[in-house]
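W.,

You were right to be curious about this one. When I first looked at the sequence I had no strong expectations either way, so I just let the prediction run and decided to look at it fresh. Below is the sequence, 229 residues in total, followed by the output.
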Amino acid sequence: MSLRIFETDPESRPKPRFSSDTVGRFRSGRMAGNRPESLSAWRVTTGDPEVADAVAKTYGGRPEEWETSAEDRLEVLTEADAMKIIIDGPQAIRSRMVLWGRQGPIHECDGVEFLSPEEDKGTPCGCPALLADRKAAAKTGRGPAPSVEVTFSLADQPDLGRFRFVSGSWELVKVLHEVENKLEAVGGPALCTLRLELVEFQTKSGIDVRYRKPVIDVHKAVQPAEAPF
């Protein structure tokens, strides 16, 4: 039988902690019913109540539970569309092309060669050469789509731990090499801005399109005293 000391003092019960190597995840959208919804400000999810409270206090919003089977059961719909972050060099960015199946990735490559499974690693992946053809294949579910993962800490709350942002944005992929080159030039932890930029245009058929794309701006090196790593 386990101890029951917290039944008489529930306020002292240890709070559950997020067991992942990151304390939370940044998201630019959510599901509204069965349809994806793009957001104008960052949404942060976490399994740690203390992290959720700190994010809400700094960037607005309030912690609320959302329906998920993952550990990050708390979400904060912040009021910020741009946040200062610290990225620890280009190695903090992982990019790949992935086609997901029910049990995991069924195609994983770098656009030219397979990254997995191990027996296929380094061999030609067979993806189309042209970007337009890659997009078309991904849209119909016949080819892989981009997956860009960025690990970082918050410049305003560096001691909270590392967060993760995962994006499938083709627009981010187009400039990702520039971001990585700038991080390489900094040569260590870099102060950056992670923001959602509004994009508006009208199609040839007269349909108005409006969405926000993720953008990473690299500013300068972070002084050793400021870096959480």
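Here's what jumped out at me. Residues 170-186 form the longest helix (17 residues). And, maybe more interesting for your project: The mean pLDDT is 90.

Coffee later to discuss?

I.
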